[in-house]
Amino acid sequence: MVLSNDxxxxxxxxxxxxxxxxxxxxxxxxxxxxxxxxQFIPTEYAKHYFQDLDRYRALCQGVRVIGPPLTGKSAASSxxxxxxxxxxxxxxxxxx
Length: 96
What we know:
Strand content: under 5%
Radius of gyration: 23 Å
Distance between the termini: 76 Å
Helix content: 40-55%
Structural class: mainly alpha
Number of helices: 3
């Protein structure tokens, strides 16, 4: 097989890391987890949750969302309230 000189090889550029890895892997992982927790990522489950909230809203029915801590209930509800400027009141109910 004969290689042609006409074939150009793509140039490869090595980019510097976007995070300072000298602080340790655990700190980098903790920072990434905190960023993921602070941002709302729409999922198929969230889409169904929003549809259920819209159904209750159409019936003028109040909803109390309960579930384990740190599962995104408040973030999803806040995101839903901001979408299309829906008339929503968010209240933190005390847990027992």
